[in-house]
Design a protein that fits this description.
alpha+beta, ph1033 like fold, two-stranded antiparallel ribbon
Amino acid sequence: MKEPKQYWLLKSEPETYSIDDLKRDKKTAWTGVRNYQARNFMMVMQPGDLCVFYHSGDEKQAVGVAKVVGKPYADPTQFEAKSHYFDPKATKEKPRWWLVDVAFVKKFKRPITLAEVKGDMVLRGMVLAQATRLSVQPVSEKHFDYLVELSSGA
């Protein structure tokens, strides 16, 4: 039996990797997650899950949609000694950090700011409204659909 589709929010500073970068690349490996709670969320992601792409840093806004296109696998950057994300405790036999590949779906016509999320009665229950620093987090289908609707500018 197929698992039901899940919804997520993925954060990236636009200077590091933006929605425009994903649009250009079409697909990317979501590397560098080094928070255990965020990693645990990534470990249960499945192909077909949809993600709100969120610009963190100064922007703090939801800017588009991406789709999970592969099963979780070990983040190779944890094994690269010269990588900013190197983890000396990780081994190929026992990796500590995981990632998924995500593909571009669409860029929002109108970004939805963190202030809007916190001020909107419908969105107030989002994890984002409370855990603003968590880089990977679940989103309910209701919140996902509402964000997409708001972003259309309709």
